[in-house]
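In practice, a research group might receive sequence data for several interacting partners and want a quick structural hypothesis before committing to experiments. The following worked case mirrors that situation: the sequences arrive first, and a predicted assembly follows.
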Amino acid sequence: MTLGGVEIERAAGFVANDTPRIVTSRFGVDDSHTLVGYLATGGYEGIRAALKKRPDEVHSQITEATVLGRGGAGFPAGVKWGFMPKDVWPRYLVVNGDESEPGTYKDRLLMELDPHQLIEGCLIASYAVGLSQCFLYVRGEMAVAQERIATALNEAYEAGYVGRNILGTDFSLDIVLHWGAGAYVVGEETALIESLEGNRGMPRLKPPYFPAAIGLYGKPTIVNNVETLANLPWIATNGAEAYRAIGTESSPGTRMVAVSGHVKRPGVYEIINGTTTFRQLLFDDEYCGGMREGRTLKAFVPGGGSAPWFLPDQLDLPFEASQVGPAGSMLGSGAIMVMDDTTDIPKAAHSLTRFYAHESCGKCVPCREGGTWLERILGRIVDGHGTTRDLEMLIEVGETICPGDFPHAASERLGLEAQRFPYQMTTICFVGPSAFAPAHSALTLFPEEFRDRVREVSDDDPVATGVGAVPVELKGVGAQ
Amino acid sequence: MTPPNDTEASPTVSITINGAAVEANPGELLIDAAERHGVYIPRFCYHPRMNPVGMCRMCLVDVDTGRGPGLQPSCMISVSEGMTVDTESERTQRAQEGILELLLVNHPLDCPVCDKGGECPLQDQTVAYGPGESRFVEEKRHYEKPIPISDLVYLDRERCILCDRCTRFASEVAGDPLIHFIDRGNETQVNTFPDEPFSSYFSGNTVQICPVGALTAEPYRFKARPWDLAENESTAVVDSTGARVVLQSSRDELVRVLGVDSDAVNWSWLSDKERFTYEANRSEDRLTDPLVRSESGEFATARWSDAAAFAAEAFAVEPDRIGVIGGARLPVEGQFMWSSLLTGLGVNDVDPQIGDGLDLDLVRSLPRATIADAAAPGGVVVLLCGDLKEELPTLYLRLRHAAVEDGAALIELSARATGLARYAKAKLHPLPGSIDDVAGALAAGTLNEAVGGVDPADLAKVAELLGSGRPVTVVVGRTNLAEDAGLITRAAAALHELVPTAKFLPALRRGNINGAIETGLARGRSTTEILRDAAAGEIETLVLLGADPLADHPDRALVSSAFDMVENLVAVDTFKTASSARADVILPAATFGEVDGSFVNLERRISPLRAKVTAPGQGRADWMIAAELAVALDQDIDVASLDDVRAQLSAAVPAFADVDWNNMDRGGDGPLLGSSGATGPSLAEIAAATSVAVPAVDGYGLRLVVDRKLWDLGTMVQQSPSLAHLAADATLSLAPADFDALGVDQGSTVTLSGPGGETAELNVSASRDLPRGVAHIPFRASGFDVGTFLSASTAVVDVRVNAG
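A structural hypothesis for the assembly, expressed as C-alpha cells:
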C-alpha cells in the first residue's frame, strides 16, 4: 500500500492481530482509503441499513450498544446525543479530529487508512439525531489525514453518499472540513467550537456552555471523537447486540490503543474493551511483545500524557474505567506510554509537563502561570540545581491548580495506597491539571529519584530554592 | 448585563452565603448576589457591564449545589435554589492565595512608580487575600516597557494580568475590536494588529477598567498619586448625554475624569472627549480677566465692575435691537439668571443653538423618551439624526448594546451610513432634501415607488418594523448641516403621525442645550434670524453666551456680515475664540469643574455639576456674571447665593418646582424634570407651518452632506493638548460609483465648486457609507472650512466636483 505517496509494507504504527476488528478491519487492506476499496469491503452498508429505520430507532440502537466516547471522557455517545434540546434547529455535528494528546495517534490512522468509515459514521450519527450539517475538524499537523479525508469526501459527494437526498432518501447532509492551526487545547470540545467559529481556541465554561445545549454558533451541537463515530457503521450493520457481545457490560465492543515507548512493538492495536489487561497488551506476543531485550518495566502512562502513571503493580488491571479510576488513573484517549528501567523519571516528567505548559491557551491563571512555573522547577531539578524545598513547591504550586488530593497509583514498594479519581481543579479545562499530573506521579511514585537529584536545605536556609546553587552530584538511575 | 427577569417562576431564589440565608434574583450571577448582600468576592476579570469570561479564577468560592462543595467561579454561575456558598472556607482562601501568588509571578513589583499604585485592585486584593510573600525566584516575563497602542493609551505588557477586560470592552462594548490577545499560554499578550492602532473613541474606558497599571492614558500619566487626589461627582458637559463622571484633582488642578456607573445614562462608560477635554480647563489660553476693548482697538484687562459697566452700556438700546446667541455651555442656574436678566430688560430674542440644531417648538412638543426607553430590549429605534458615534458617543454605546445584546431593531433614516449602520436592521439614506418625503411616504403607506433614491423594498422593510407593534423611539437630530432643519421637522411629524405612540429623543449635541430650553433661555428669533437681522442693521447689540458662531454656525458668510454690522458685541466666554476675539468686552466665565450647578440632559434628566477646582484668575460663575450685569443695569435681581438662584428657579419654572437641589443624585441617577406645563402648537401644526422649497436635482452636481466628527476644530478639543492633533481632516468623500466616474485615484486632489461660484481644492476618497449623488465633507475639520460653502437661506447645497 502507499501512504503519502510512499510505498510501504504496512501503515505506520499498525500491527495486525487476531482480535475482533470493528474499526481497524481495513487496516492493511490495499486502497482502504479509496471509495473503491471501501465499497469492496462492505462500505456504506451501515448507512443503508440505518436509512431503512426511523432516526429514533437508529439513535436507540446506538444508545443500546453503549459506545463509550473515545476522546478521553468515555461518555456514551447515544446518551450524549439525547441531551440535545428537542425541536431546536439548526443543530450540528462536530467531529473532533484534533487528536493531540501526547502518545495518541489512533484517530490519525483511522483518518488516513479508513476515511470513508468516518464519513459513514458521520452520516449515521447525523441521521439519528436529525441534523444536516456536520463539521469535520482535523488537526493542523495531520497532512496525510487531511488529504485522505478531503479526497474521500469528494468521492462520497460524487457518489451521492454525502450531499442532498442521500441514497435517494429525504436525508441530506453536508460535511465541512476544517483544519486546525496547531493548538493542543482545541482537542477540548468547547475550545474546538471556539476555534471552528474563528476565535482563539480557548475553552468555554460548562455550565452554561454544554455543547449539546449551547454549542457551535450557540446552537445544539454534538461533538464526537473520530473513533467513536468510526464504530457506528459496524453497529448499524451488525446490530447493537453483536457489539455488546464483545467486551464487558459496562465497556462493550473494542477500543483502539496507541502504545509508544520501550516495548518491542509499539503501535496501534484494537483490543477487546473491558477485559484485555495492560499486561496482555504490553507483554503478549499478539500485541507489543514485551519490554525491549534485557529491560524491565518501570512505569507506564495508561491513558495519554495527562493520566497519572501506573507501576508494574497495576499491570493486571483491565481496560475498564470503573477499575482504572479507583486505581488512581484513567483510560483517557487510549495512549499507553511505556518506560523501562533506563528511564530518567524526573526528566520524563519534565518533558510531559513542558508540553502542557507550552500548550496552555493562556486563559486560566493557574494553568498559564502555574504550568510554566512547574516546568521551571522541574527543569532546574533535572539540571541538578534543585533543592528539597523545590520538591515541596512542586506539590504546593500543583495544589493551586488542583486543590486537595491528586490521584495516584498504589505502590507496594513504597507502601502507598491508591488515591482515586476524580480531582478538584481551579481551571476551566484539563490542560492545567495535565501539567501537574506527570510531576505529581513521578514525585509520588519515585521520590528517591528526585531526592537524589536535589540539595538538602533547611527551612531557614536563605536560598531555600536553588536558583544559582551549586549542582549536586547526580546519583539517580539514568543520571548521565 | 440585564439579569433575566423570570416572572413566572418564584420571584426570588433562596441561597445560603457564609451561613446566612439570603434571597437572590433568578438568573443572577453568584458574584452579584453575594455583593448585593454585603459579601464581596474578589475578582479581576469580572465586570458587571460585560459578559463574564471566568478568566482570572480569583472569584472561585466553595459552592455546594447538592453534589458536595467544590470550587466554582462565582462570576460564571447563576444562583440556584438551595445553593450553599462559603466564601471564607479554607479551600476558598487557599485558592485565593494561590491565584494571587500566580498572578504576581510575572507581575513586576514596580508599584512605587506605577500610576495605579494606591488604587490598584491587584495591590489591594493581594493585601486582603494574598500570601505574604512570593516563592517565585525565576526571572519574570519581559516585554518592551510601555508601548503606545493609540494616541492616548499606553500598554505595559509586563504589568498586564490578561484579564480580558480591555479586549472585551473593545469588541463587546465599543465595537472596535482593535486590541486582542496574541500568542499563547505564558507568552500571551494583549496587543494591536500590526500597523492598526487602537484608535477608538472609547479607548479611555480600557484604562479605567484595567485592574492593574498596564493601561495608562497620556493625559494622566505620572501626573498624580491616587492618595493625593480629591474628587467630586459631577456630570460631563461636552455633549447633551450628560454622562455621570467623577472629577479628580491634585493641587487644585483637574487631573482625571472617570465614568460613574449610572444605570440611566452612561453605564460607567465615557467617550474620550468626555474623559479628556478637562485638559482645556488649564489651558494657557483660558481667559482670566475681563477684557475691554480700548480706544486703540486693543483689549485691556479691566476690573469686574468696570467691565460690567462697560457691557451694560451695550444694553442701553431698544430691547428688540438686542440679540443673544448661545447659553448651552452654562449650568442651569446661569441659564436661568440670564433668562431673568433678559426678561427684566425686555429682551425676547435668545437662541442657545447655533443654526445647527432643530426647531425648538418641535423639540418642546415631542413626547420625550428616556435613554432607557430607546435602549429597551426588543424596541425599534429610528435614527433620524447624524452619526451618534461622532456626536453623542455615549448614547451610541447604549444603542449599540441594545441592538447587539438586547434585540432592539435600529432603522437608519439619515443622509449617510453612520457608526450604527452595521448594527441596523434597515437603512434609508435619501438624497438631501427628500428625507421628509421618505418619512411622508412611510406615513402615507405609499411604499411601491422609489422616493429620494430609496429603494421601495427598503421602505417596505421599515414600514413593517414600525408597524410591528414593538415600542418605537425616534432619535431626532440634524442628519445633514447642509440641509434645512425644516425637513427634519416634517420628517419627525410624519413619523409621529405613522406611530402615534412613538417617543422622541432629541439628539441636540450641544452640552446643556436642554437646560437652556427648560429655563427659558430659548425664545423669540432663532440664531439664524438674529444674524440675518443683524446683517440687515436691525440688531445693534449682539451678546454671545459661550457661543462661537463664526466657527460654529454653518453659514460663514452670514455671520461675518452680521458681525460687521452690529454696534456692540458682548461675549461671555472661557476662551478668546474667533467670535469672542471680535467682541468689545469679554467677561471670563468659570466652567465645568470650577462651579457648582446643574445640568439637564437630552432626556430632561437633571443632575448636578460640582466644583472641584477654582477657576483661573477672575473667572466667575455665569449666574454671578448675570447678577453683576443686573446690578450694573439697575435690575431688581435679588440673589446672593446659588441657593437663592435655585429657589427662584423652582418658584418661577414649573418643570423645576420639585427638584430637591441638594440631593439631586442621591441614590444614583438624577430625576427627570417635571412637566413644563407649557402648551404650544402641536407637532402637526408645527409641521404644517414648516415649508421648505427644495430645488430639483441638478443632473451634473452632487448634493452636499455635512456633519460633525468627534475630533474637530472645536475649542474644547483644540485646547486639550492630548486631543488637538486628532482633529479629522476635511476630506471629500463620494459614493464608490460617483468616485469611479471621476476617474481619479484615492486621495488625489479635486476641485469643489459651490453654488455661488466659490471653489476649493480637497482630497477625495470613495466611501461605501454614502448613497449615490452626494458629496460628504465633515464640519469644522482640519484643512478646509466647509462653512464657506453653506448658506442658511437654501434648503440644500448643490456642488460640483472636477478632477484636477
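Before designing any experiment, note the following. Residues 1-17, 464-480 of chain A have pLDDT under 50 and may be disordered. Strands of chain A lie at 2-3, 6-7, 92-97, 133-138, 174-179, 221-225, 254-261, 267-272, 297-301, 335-340.
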